[in-house]
Amino acid sequence: MATHKILLLPGDGIGPEVAQEVSKVLAWFTRAGIAQFETETDLVGGAAIDAHGVPLSEAAMDRAKAADAVLFGAVGGPKWAGVSYAKRPEAGLLRLRKDLGLFANLRPAICYPALAEASALKRELVEGLDIVIVRELTGGVYFGEPKEIVTLEDGQKRAVDTQVYTTGEIERIAAVAFDLARKRRNKVASAEKHNVMKTGVLWKETVTKLHAEQYSDVGLEHVLADNCAMQLVRNPKQYDVLVTDNLFGDILSDVAAMLTGSLGMLPSASLGAVENGTRRALYEPVHGSAPDIAGQNLANPIAMIGSLAMALRYSFGLLEAADQLEGAITRTLAAGTRTRDIAGPGTNAVGTTEMGDAIVREL
Ligand code: ATP
Ligand code: MG
């Protein structure tokens, strides 16, 4: 049985609390003989600042590079608010993203049946929702040059942002989306605005060409980004994998997130280049360190445990184990187990550790 190398970086606030529940799940898979993990733990964020004076030590960075996947909790908190930018806890995560070359951000929007009832949205709209948005993370208008504000001769100011994409950047993000779709429902929608943007024209052309050459077995649909936003609200279940650029991805993934309920439920993955046969990857909950509830056994560990499920599926190729874990989460919720963030008013809530235990019991 292959051994999967994991670097666990719990971080700050509720990070260590939710990471603890992931450790329980990993231990269960090992005990059950389903998979073999070699897990190392290191400090990141404020915890690393306190111990080493920097938000990520060189040793931790080396371990991240050597691991098959990094599982990241959350960083930051009021204690480190005053420190300089380079030493802020968040700089630890930015360094990981940059040095691991993580150019693809995957944000699933899953709506568990047991929570669809409580959704403020129409139940039939979100019940059973399971889509993944693949957002390009290192290019586009966030980084394109020129990027400036200049003062004109007449005293007005002029601001410029530049959207830049190369075929190489588009191909590699599209390949991530197609590969992902093959492990899911085999459907990709690609969102851009080729009607008004040259980058949109190139995006559509490049995705179409890659599809014809290497992924013709996968369904492909092109959609204008504004129409896509509307479709996500009108009928989100029509999508499986949705691939888009940095800016549209930022907006569309927030729209999709709101279809699902609590921040404490949303996992994410950031993927990089393939090196020596493995794709660099970091998995983390969408939520932050939540200082307001830290240390009180109140955090919902499902976003973090769901991030592990993504690692099982996308980094380790353990598709059945991933299904099994997601099934256990679904059944735990169906049995009525709720942490405070997803418990309705007047409903009994369990703590972080109890939620983790309940999921392991379902496994
Ligand atoms: P960051 O800037 O690090 O993203 P943030 O301030 O935007 O952090 P969070 O730390 O995610 O946001 O917290 C936002 C709110 O959501 C807080 O009230 C927090 O308690 C709540 N929250 C976040 N994560 C969870 C969780 N796993 N379980 C329960 N509540 C959570
Ligand atoms: Mg935030």
UniProtKB/TrEMBL annotation:
Cofactor note: Binds 1 Mg(2+) or Mn(2+) ion per subunit.
Reactions performed catalytically: (2R,3S)-3-isopropylmalate + NAD(+) = 4-methyl-2-oxopentanoate + CO2 + NADH
Site, as annotated: Important for catalysis: Y142, K193
Binding site for NAD(+): 77-90, 288-300
Name of the protein in its database record: 3-isopropylmalate dehydrogenase
Any Pfam family: Iso_dh
Necessary cofactors: Mg(2+); Mn(2+)
Binding partners and assembly: Homodimer.
UniProt-listed Gene3D superfamilies: Isopropylmalate Dehydrogenase
Binding site for substrate: R97, R107, R135, D226
Domain of life, source organism: Bacteria
Subcellular location, record wording: Cytoplasm
Keyword Transport carried by entry: no
Purpose of the protein: Catalyzes the oxidation of 3-carboxy-2-hydroxy-4-methylpentanoate (3-isopropylmalate) to 3-carboxy-4-methyl-2-oxopentanoate. The product decarboxylates to 4-methyl-2 oxopentanoate.
Name of the gene this protein is made from: leuB
The EC number(s) this enzyme carries: 1.1.1.85
Catalytic EC class: oxidoreductase
Keywords: Amino-acid biosynthesis, Branched-chain amino acid biosynthesis, Cytoplasm, Leucine biosynthesis, Magnesium, Manganese, Metal-binding, NAD, Oxidoreductase
Domain Isopropylmalate dehydrogenase-like: 5-359
Organism in which the protein naturally occurs: Methylobacterium ajmalii
Family: Belongs to the isocitrate and isopropylmalate dehydrogenases family. LeuB type 1 subfamily.
